[in-house]
Specification:
By secondary structure, this protein is mostly helical. Helices cover 69% and strands 0% of the residues. Helix 1 runs antiparallel to helix 3 and helix 1 runs parallel beside helix 5. The longest helix has 45 residues. The protein is rod-shaped and about 90 Å long. The two termini are 31 Å apart.
Length: 153
């Protein structure tokens, strides 16, 4: 695929190439988000979040392309107004899909944090004193293994 996000848009052909590339990129990004959302909704967190590098690349290219689109909006409006309208509609659909994805990611994060909290509570519950000794203090328990969790998602 040609990186059209860096080409100045000075004619109809360049405008057409750029809008077609952006259209394809938006379709790919939307499909990627939809697959991730479906996996997360199904509770398949490992599959849902495994392709983060591809997603990051797509998002970076999308942002770069949007900046190029904004910088060349007058040329695009002049050379390919119909395609620009098409991109606006596609962007609205993409934004809707993005909101659904964000809700799924937020829910998955909350569920996983709750599971980790419950697990930590269960592990630490075994380490709490349960009885008093003759002096009236809690009986010491043996030191259990600590549970360390990396919360970065």
């Amino acid at each position: 695929m040609i990186n059209t996000a860096t080409l100045p848009i000075t004619d109809r052909e360049t405008a057409q190439q750029f809008t077609e590339a952006l259209h394809g990129l938006m379709i790919n990004l939307t499909q990627h988000m939809r697959r991730e959302t479906d996996a997360l909704k199904a509770g398949d967190y490992s599959t849902g979040l495994t392709d983060a590098e591809t997603k990051a690349d797509l998002v970076h290219t999308y942002r770069t392309s949007l900046a190029h689109l904004k910088a060349n909006k007058d040329s695009l409006s002049r050379f390919v107004p119909v395609k620009l309208d098409e991109l606006r509609r596609l962007n609205a659909s993409f934004q809707s899909e993005l909101q659904v994805n964000l809700a799924a990611v937020t829910t998955a994060k909350a569920v996983s944090e709750q599971l980790l909290t419950r697990l930590a509570d269960k592990v630490s519950a075994g380490n709490r004193p349960k009885t008093y000794n003759a002096s009236g203090s809690m009986t010491p328990t043996s030191k259990g293994a600590a549970l360390a969790v990396d919360r970065a998602l």
